[in-house]
Every structure is written in C-alpha cells, then in structure tokens.
Amino acid sequence: MYTIFTLRCLPDLRIAPDITHIRKLAVSADYPRDLIGYGSNPPHPRWPGDARIALSFVLNYEEGGERNILHGDRESEAFLSEMVAAQPLQGQRNMSMESLYEYGSRAGVWRILKLFKQFDIPLTIFAVAMAAQRHPDVIRAMVADGHEICSHGYRWIDYQNMDEAQEREHMRQAIQILTEISGERPLGWYTGRTGANTRRLVME
C-alpha cells in the first residue's frame, strides 16, 4: 500500500528549513567551501502520514538537444550513454549515438509514460528545451498526464567554459520555450554539467 503525494497537491508542505541565506551565497573560486553542512543534526523532512521515505521518479528528456554537428557543435555527444567509453567524434556525426537518442524520443519515452500512467505515478521531467522544441507533442502529453516539467537547460551540453552572458541567454530561452510548450513556467532547474556561474544564474 502506498500513497502518492506531489508538491503541487501539498502547497503548504514545508520539507526543508529556511534557505534564504543560501540564496545569498555565490559559488566561490576559493575557500571557504561548505564541507560541514548540517553535520550530525540534519533537519527532519516530516513527510505526510509520517512516512519514513519519499521516492521521486525522474525522466530525463534530452533527445535533440545533445551535442551534434547538426546543432552547430564541433563534435558528437559521448557523455553518459549506453556506449561505454564512447568518445566524441570531432567534426563528424556519430550515427550509433544518434540512434540511441532517437530511440528514446520515438519509442522509449512513450513506453515510460504508458507505464507510469498505468500505475498513476507522477514523474518529474528533466526537459531540455531544444529537445522539447523538436518534439512538443511529447511534452504536452507529459503535462496532460499530470507530470511536472522541470527545466534541464536549453541544451544537453557542458556549460563549464561557456561565458556568463551566453549561459544566461540559454537559461532565458529554456524558460521561455518550456513555458510556451507546457503552458506553465518551470519551477525547478537542473543543469547536468554546470559551470562556475550556473548556480548564481539560476538563483537570479
């Protein structure tokens, strides 16, 4: 027996302490770094019904937003794929890698959505905005099924060396695109490969 709760259906739920002071902190290039956290006194989340554990199911939707020379990139995608030890191909398409991504958007995502609908379990969708642009119908289907659309950035790329102005523009585009497609401004954010400015820009 289990009960499904979401933050949408529990708007007054307070599962974390006040983080106002955290928002004022920038990512430092030097010490002090927070290596202590809450130490031996972590806050109690106080889940509904005195539940001892909370499960969050997340589906990443990145297909069509990954590195690809068709997207103006210099190399193919290689990060976090089923192709172990894959290396980016400079100036070339990696057709095997593209096939993995294309299966996800053509078939895999629909199988996952069908399964979670069958058991009436909500998902958080980490949606890359460029991927959403290329397949808006799947995003609308996610929304129709009651899933939450969380921004996964404009592209599924490494933001480590991107300049601040361009990264800020990517964030603006991501919010605009996902809002237009889903009909609701995304409240969450997850950048997969962050840079030194990412955290501060998200807080803006």
From TrEMBL:
Residues 95-204 form the NodB homology domain. GO terms for biological process: carbohydrate metabolic process. One of its GO terms (molecular function) is hydrolase activity, acting on carbon-nitrogen (but not peptide) bonds. Pfam families: Polysacc_deac_1. This is Polysaccharide deacetylase protein. It comes from Pseudomonas syringae pv. maculicola. The lineage of its organism: Bacteria, Pseudomonadati, Pseudomonadota, Gammaproteobacteria, Pseudomonadales.
